[in-house]
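Section 5: illustrative case.
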């Protein structure tokens, strides 16, 4: 239970600090859903019952008094420490004991109480709620007025929560590394298996690196006499981070990356789209480059054709083959139009068929163009991680990626930011895992305070 609470706190703090757009939204059940229908029926029954009570002679005020008591508590919850005057005023005006005594003598000024509540809400609400307050003042029916008061109070609760988040964000940003590391240590003490997936992730990266060294050694003379390979912990971690860009997100992500899972998945999806665009441009350039070499910015024109047709390509219902066929048709049309405008012969049917066929084949496994572009994207990202975290410049963009350079640099910047922060927080935990896997004979200690650096 404590571990689950710590994980929730850690995740929420991380999201508030790194996501400037994070806020709490007021959400209700869909109107036609079962839950929405039940809620609507129950609420209608409650307000109808209240209306019948207030219409009795003499009126029955008990349920209304309970609503005023609830409203009083909500208004008090909006006050900041030290707001003693308005605190005392709310308690005095909405004194339920006094209201109950007035009800016994049929002397409750229920409209006067409602107007006081509305005016107080107007003083406490955010400017975005001013129109809601005006609508409340224009409502005459007391039951409908009380119902709408609760609706606006619910909105004000959300506003207050978001105001608190906004004020908390700078503090969290300054202290997030220590906070997350401390919280995760508490989780680890409560749940010793909380690093199992992370350990497996690092172990796979070590095995990949050993396999790569083995392949290089076997092709070199004197491989049999080579000493035991020395593996760089930083290289192991960086390779592990690179695998996240091709991660199958149906699998559970390592525990230390849960807080950034959605952001990493979004980056992977954007990179997949950019890879397709780069493939399309490279194929087109290789096949008809001579015909379009004099057309300025032609590659970016091809990108503008591709982007809308690849929108939503990571959804399960998206048909990538169909999209690539449509892209091929439009590119052939664009090339022919450009040739016609310059008085040149258009592409013959065979060349158009070949161009559309090669574009359609991008989706196939082990497609040479797709594999090439993928390796170059990976090379760029690997070069980015190899840079010191304080270095702001970007590595050189590999050939074939210039058409997506702006997008690649933007995604690369986001990716590097996620990775560098993750290393800061979880570096001590990674260091212990790496020591255990790479140097099993070395004595184990507590998590180091030093973080592996790039």
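Designed sequence:
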């Amino acid at each position: 239970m404590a571990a689950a609470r710590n994980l929730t706190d850690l995740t929420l703090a991380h999201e508030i600090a790194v996501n400037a757009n994070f806020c709490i939204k007021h959400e209700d059940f869909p109107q036609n859903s079962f839950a929405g229908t039940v809620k609507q029926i129950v609420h209608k029954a409650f307000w109808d019952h209240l209306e019948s009570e207030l219409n009795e002679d003499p009126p029955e005020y008990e349920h209304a008094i309970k609503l005023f008591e609830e409203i009083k508590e909500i208004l008090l919850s909006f006050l900041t420490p030290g707001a003693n005057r308005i605190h005392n005023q709310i308690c005095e005006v909405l004194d339920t004991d006094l209201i109950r005594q007035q009800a016994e003598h049929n002397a409750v000024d229920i409209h006067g109480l409602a107007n006081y509540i509305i005016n107080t809400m107007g003083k406490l609400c955010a400017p975005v709620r001013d129109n809601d307050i005006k609508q409340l003042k224009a409502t005459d029916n007391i039951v409908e007025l009380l119902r709408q008061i609760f609706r606006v109070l619910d909105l004000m609760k959300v506003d207050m929560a978001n105001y608190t988040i906004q004020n908390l964000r700078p503090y969290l940003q300054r202290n997030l590394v220590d906070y997350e590391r401390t919280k995760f240590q508490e989780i680890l003490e409560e749940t010793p298996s909380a690093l199992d997936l992370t350990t497996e992730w690092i172990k796979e990266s070590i095995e990949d690196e050993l396999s790569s060294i083995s392949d290089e050694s076997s092709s070199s003379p004197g491989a049999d006499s080579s000493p035991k390979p020395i593996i760089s912990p930083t290289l192991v971690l960086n390779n592990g981070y690179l695998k996240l860009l091709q991660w199958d997100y149906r699998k559970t992500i390592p525990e230390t990356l849960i807080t950034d899972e959605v952001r990493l998945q979004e980056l992977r999806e954007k990179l997949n789209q950019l890879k397709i665009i780069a493939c399309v441009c490279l194929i087109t350039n290789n096949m008809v480059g001579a015909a379009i070499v004099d057309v300025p910015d032609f590659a970016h024109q091809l990108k503008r054709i591709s982007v809308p047709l690849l929108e939503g390509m990571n959804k399960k219902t998206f048909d990538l083959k169909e999209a690539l066929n449509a892209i091929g048709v439009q590119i052939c049309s664009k090339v022919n139009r450009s040739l016609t405008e310059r008085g040149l012969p258009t592409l013959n049917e065979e060349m158009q068929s070949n161009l559309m066929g090669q574009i359609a084949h991008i989706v196939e496994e082990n497609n040479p163009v797709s594999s090439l572009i993928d390796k170059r994207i990976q090379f760029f990202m690997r070069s980015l991680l190899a840079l010191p975290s304080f270095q702001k410049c970007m590595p050189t963009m590999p050939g074939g990626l210039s058409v997506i350079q702006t997008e690649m640099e933007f995604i690369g910047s986001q990716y590097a930011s996620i990775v560098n922060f993750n290393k800061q927080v979880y570096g001590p935990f990674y260091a212990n895992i790496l020591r255990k896997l790479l140097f099993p004979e070395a004595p184990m200690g507590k998590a180091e305070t030093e973080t592996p650096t790039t």
